[in-house]
Amino acid sequence: MKSGNSKGAAWHSAQSVRPCSTSVAKRGGALASDLQDFCAAHYNCPAVEVIREAVRQFIDARLEAEPEMCRRFEKARKDRLKTRQA
Predict the structure, then answer these.
(1) Considering the entire predicted model, what is its pTM?
(2) 50 to each of 5, 31, 72, 76, how far by Cα in Å?
(3) 45, exposed or middle or buried, with CB in 10 Å at 0-12, 13-18, 19+?
(4) Of 65, 43, 47, which Cα lies nearest the Cα of 55?
(5) DSSP character for 20?
(6) Other C-beta atoms within 10 Å of 25: how many?
(7) What is the pLDDT of residues 40-85, one digit of tens each?
(8) Are 36 and 20 in contact (CB under 8 A)?
(9) How far apart are the first and last CA of the chain?
(10) Which strand (E) or helix (H) includes residue 77?
(11) Which end of the chain is more exposed for a tag (fewer CB within 10 A), N or C?
């Protein structure tokens, strides 16, 4: 999947990266540390960008692999949008 970010490495290198908060680090353990280290290695990109891309890829893969989950997902989306419009 392509990343939605077209700003490039120059934009990333200009951004400051906040370390994971203490509560996230405690709950995420080694994963939070890996995320922080990956962000630093990936031109200091914001953690939220990595998380968004990872979640998008996970959702897309699960929906493609599980047709029944895809149907439930579409129904949940339809229901959410319907209540939002009401």
Answers:
(1) 0.65
(2) 11, 12, 26, 25
(3) buried
(4) 47
(5) P
(6) 16
(7) 999 999 999 999 999 999 999 999 999 999 999 999 999 999 998 8
(8) yes
(9) 34
(10) helix 67-85
(11) C
